[in-house]
Design goal:
With about 240 residues, this protein is of the alpha/beta class. About 50% of the residues lie in helices and about 10% in strands. A four-stranded parallel beta sheet has the order 1-2-3-4, with helices on both faces. The longest helix has about 40 residues. About 30% of the residues are buried.
């Protein structure tokens, strides 16, 4: 009798857990659907990717025209480290693959003294299905649309696929998070900084990828990022 009661108790617990699991799965699905709808709606009217690239080119033009002001009047001027955070890192990496945009504004090519180093924090993003094998296509499209604009989803460049042999031979430091998006591997697949660093090294470009104990939303204010930047300052300065 005791054994039968135990079996019944176990069966009830299993059924309860199964029901709870089903409710959690349904709630998660509804949440993801809601987020997807909101992302698509919020992406309307976003700046185009071309406009983002143009903004970065304008900033580089200002820096070259105001070197002393931009670097605090140091002699020799302080090093110029080019890069960005999150989607900004993606835009920066994409621009280095488009030297014609730089030349059109009188800027040197990436491999001809545009900057002294490159720093990408919690980017570069994977924007191709082959780069996001674990993510469903609807989720890929939703993320790209909300980050870069609704009309850009199907023409978003992939720095990982566009990387060119004329990539600047300056130190590239790519810093990511061990768990980019709250530890959800489904979303972590959108970050391909490690693969991008490996592709640069194959071209002979000095590149390092480091993962810190933080997440995408808190990394800029994290002690881990400050410590890594402090340690890697000498690596930027040494000849490669």
């Amino acid at each position: 009798m005791t054994g039968a009661r135990m079996m019944i108790t176990v069966a009830v617990i299993v059924l309860a857990l199964s029901a709870q699991a089903q409710i959690m799965a349904a709630s998660l699905a509804a949440f993801l659907l809601l987020v997807w709808v909101l992302w698509i709606a919020c992406a309307r009217g976003s700046a185009s990717f071309d406009a983002m690239l143009d903004d970065v080119v304008s900033a580089l033009c200002w820096i070259r025209s105001n070197t002393q002001c931009a670097t605090g009047g140091l002699r020799p001027p302080a090093a110029v480290i080019f890069g960005g955070y999150s989607s900004g890192a993606h835009v920066a990496a994409s621009l280095l693959n488009r030297p014609h945009l730089l030349a059109a504004r009188g800027l040197p090519a990436p491999c001809e003294g545009l900057c002294d180093g490159v720093l990408y924090v919690s980017g570069v993003l994977a924007t191709r299905p082959s780069e996001c094998r674990l993510a469903p296509s609807w989720l890929t499209d939703a993320v790209v649309r909300v980050v870069f604009g609704k009309d850009e989803a199907f023409k978003m460049p992939s720095p990982l696929h566009e990387i060119k042999s004329e990539a600047p031979r300056v130190p590239h430091l790519l810093i990511g998070c061990k768990h980019e998006v709250f530890g959800l591997s489904l979303l972590d697949v959108f970050f391909c900084s490690a693969d991008y660093a490996a592709a640069l090294r194959q071209l002979g470009v000095p590149a390092r990828y480091l993962a810190v104990s933080s997440d995408h939303w808190r990394i800029l204010n994290s002690r881990a990022l400050s410590e890594v930047l402090g340690r890697e300052r000498a690596w930027f300065a040494c000849p490669h």
